[in-house]
Amino acid sequence: MADNAAQKLETVLHSGYIGQGVLVEEFERELHEFLGASHLVTLNSATSALHLALHLVKTACPTKTEVLTIPLTCTATNFPILANGLVPKWVDTDPLTCNVDVVDLRRKVSEKTLAIMVVHWGGYPCDLDVIKDIQCECEGLYGYRPPVIEDCAHAFGATYNGKLLGNHGNYCCFSFQAIKHLTTGDGGLLVCPDAQSYNRATLLRWYGLDRNSCIEMRCAQNVREWGFKFHMNDINASIGLSNLAHTKRILNIHRVNGAYYDMELQDVDGVKLLNCERPGSSYWVYTFRVADRDSFVKHMRSKGIAVNRVHDRNDKHHCLQEFRSLLPGTDEICEDMICIPCGWWVDEEDREHIVNNIKERW
Predict the structure, then answer these.
(1) CA dist 157 to 136, 222, 311, Å?
(2) For the segment 275-306, what is each residue's pLDDT rounded down to a tens digit?
(3) 0.85 exceeded by pTM
(4) Which of 225, 244, 263 is the last residue of a domain?
(5) What are the phi and psi torsion angles at 231 (to 5°)?
């Protein structure tokens, strides 16, 4: 939290207006300035952003039902698929990156494909160029170009080919939840690919009502398309505005710590790094593979170092078991993956302590 967050928040709390107001609008302008993306809509969570993106896509093409997605992620990625009455079709995980296996993705596109959902694991961007090629191939084969929905919950400030995520023509869903690079306490952001989807999203985040209408009683409006209560409020926007000013500095610390781990751990016995060349990664967490993970976890925790897998595969849950399929890459990476902290709170002494204890294990 920025030092001035409490003061700004107190002003909002006593202002007489704490709903979606001028601070939400200001926060959206500042996010536009930061990201460069034009069609962005703040929301109350990234889960709402994913849900809304899927809703926009499915109502535009109601005859298709399948969403290609990966199971190795937060359940917030995939539960909105179920909530929209759609069918998740699992795509395998690339053990080198923890991102989608684009070879398997290409293989699983079909005439039923409604959308492609990808996750930028730990802030490391997926190969959006290859995914774009797969969109084109699908259009050539089936006459339909499936939209891409990027789950950017780990990846605020990450870049692909030198451009910030949110600027590659896809739906992009960012998280401002408590432990992300940028927090609003809780909140989210949906970047839309065009003006039409942006205009719909702006209405549907608040029941389908136009908040800018001159009608004195908004409920007197004739709602043409029903919507949700997904909007952000001025309380969260106030916190976000305070913290956004420090986000570039925070991202830099994450990246410096991640680069340090890349260098120090590359030749350690028992450690297998993911793709070491991580251009543009926001390093939300640092993931690698480790021999005898259970004993490694015990060793690190005995030294006061937090280690965890962060997320597990979603297809193990009872509510998703009917969709299970053979996913050898996911099986492989889930056997030995582990994450260590690399965030803004990890200083030089901390990261040296972490690395020394990893090396000590072997």
Answers:
(1) 27, 39, 21
(2) 866 679 999 999 999 999 999 999 999 999 99
(3) yes
(4) 244
(5) -70, 160
